[in-house]
Design a protein that fits this description.
Elements: H1 3-26, H2 29-35, H3 40-62, H4 71-93, H5 96-103, H6 106-116, H7 124-142, H8 153-177, H9 183-204, H10 214-238, H11 243-249, H12 252-265, H13 271-291
Helix pairs in contact: 1-10, 2-10, 3-4, 3-9, 3-10, 4-8, 4-9, 5-7, 5-8, 5-12, 6-8, 6-11, 7-13, 9-10
């Protein structure tokens, strides 16, 4: 293996590791949303609002300040506001596992757009990995059958499925923005765009804007910290990995969310859900193998 390929291999693996860690951290989000006793869109607003000061401080250290607003970062913020609004309502109506799984059907949308719009033709092995990961995620959702927890599972599942589209647009916008700007700066400006939209949605929908308990406020603060650590890690990795690859790897989120839902909310994991989790993770591993630069295979 040449020095150049060894360096590329190390950078690729580092980006994958950061992406997996970020995705695992984001897996905490539906649990914290459940614990934050405010409206779904309002919780999204507080998540971003508490993250913004941290992002501004980080941008000062890493990028010399927040600078001007990249247009793609603002577009990502609009997509993220729609993402959070639909997803948080999905979490309110269906199970933690279902809401997270259906949201993470994003790889199908991202891969299709990257192929059709950006002419990034995926390898056959990568397409198989997407099918495997999404199939496993789907098993985790449908395996509950008629006994899925939640006040209105069909409506919650529909909201969560629509979230996948908004999340795909967010992924693609962040990936494109990372070509010209740092991750922290992009995260800050996307937050500046999404926060007022989430606040407006909460007010228009007549939600409870303020958490009613100290525990609710703590959950909102934790969401802000989680947003910086999780989405920040994903944004950083998107500067080094194709968007389609990253969208598959973050399918570790529903596995983390399902395990936490079982531990905290007694949302039992049956054999079908366990099988689905294993298949989804296998798809993630296969996607990582398929997305490695071709030069890395030459030793």
């Amino acid at each position: 293996m040449t020095d150049a390929s060894a360096t590329s291999d190390t950078g690729h693996l580092k980006a994958l590791a950061v992406l997996v860690i970020g995705a695992a951290v984001i897996g905490l989000a539906p649990i914290l949303v459940r614990l934050a006793d405010a409206g779904p869109a309002a919780v999204g607003f507080w998540r971003v609002a508490f993250a913004l000061p941290l992002l501004a401080l980080m941008a000062q250290k890493t990028d010399g300040g927040v600078g001007g607003a990249p247009r793609l970062a603002l577009l990502a913020g609009v997509a993220f506001a729609l993402d959070l609004s639909f997803w948080h309502y999905g979490i309110a109506f269906t199970s933690v596992a279902n809401a997270t799984v259906l949201t993470n059907l994003t790889p199908v949308v991202v891969t299709a757009v990257a192929w059709l719009v950006f002419k990034q033709r995926p390898r056959n092995l990568f397409v198989a990995a997407v099918a495997l990961a999404v199939g496993g995620a789907w098993l985790m959702a449908v395996g509950r059958g008629a006994h899925a927890p939640g006040t209105n599972p069909p409506l919650g599942d529909a909201f969560s499925l629509l979230t996948a589209v908004w999340y795909a647009f967010y992924f693609l916008a962040i990936s494109a923005a990372r070509r010209t700007a740092g991750a922290t700066r992009i995260m800050f400006w996307s937050g500046m765009a999404s926060a007022p939209l989430l606040l407006a949605a909460a007010l228009l929908l007549g939600e409870d804007l303020l958490p009613a308990t100290a525990g609710g406020w703590a959950a909102c603060v934790a969401l802000g910290v989680m947003h910086v650590a999780g989405q920040g890690s994903i944004a950083w990795a998107l500067g080094r990995l194709p968007a389609a690859t990253a969208s598959v790897v973050v399918l570790v989120q529903p596995v983390v969310a399902a395990i936490l839902g079982w531990m905290l909310f007694a949302e039992a994991l049956g054999p079908v859900q366990a099988l689905g989790a294993g298949i989804a993770l296998a798809g993630v591993v296969l996607a990582q193998m398929a997305s490695r630069p071709k030069a890395l295979a030459q030793t």
